[in-house]
Amino acid sequence: MLSTPLTQILSGATLGLFAGLAPGPMLTLVLAQTIQYNAREGIKVAAAPLITDPPIIALALVLFDQVADIQPAMGIISLAGAVYLGYLGLEALRVTAADLDIRTRMPNSFQKGILTNFLNPHPYLFWFSVGIPLLLSPEQNRAGLAAVFLISFYLLLVGSKMGLALVVGRGKPLLKTRVYPWIMKGLGIALWVFGLVFLVKGVRVLFYPV
Fold this sequence. Notes:
Elements: H1 5-21, H2 25-36, H3 39-46, H4 49-63, H5 71-93, H6 109-118, H7 121-135, H8 143-171, H9 179-207
């Protein structure tokens, strides 16, 4: 069946919505920055893939037919991501009730989002295993169809995270001072869990390949 703009919109939107709302370090960071600061900071994190993904897609396009095994590179990225997520998790665990009203440090949400996504192996794996084959399939022989897929994908990927930041930001005044640090500690532990997953993946890929 030939691809049409409608099928590209549906496939892009479905994959984008799943990627946008699937549990992971980016979604956790959106929640953490929104709760600690405000919805605007969560939205900055959500927008990070618009900066990080174009070079990832370009790299995948260039290397797709040339690299037989990308696993070593994924292992290195996973290990670097584990270290950075460990740092972000430690930051969240150190948050106290006073941080709800007093800001002693800049949030740096956009920079955190960019680093987190660059050091997350999932975008690389998605574009090498699913995204690029979709864009380069025989049915996908028109640039317009590829553009429709990409636009619908990123509208839902970024838009769903931004929407969640707005919803959480609206509910922030309901947080009691004693509840807030525990929420941040929970998010910090979640970041550590994702970091541990990345660590295990990186070690397994680099030192115990199948």
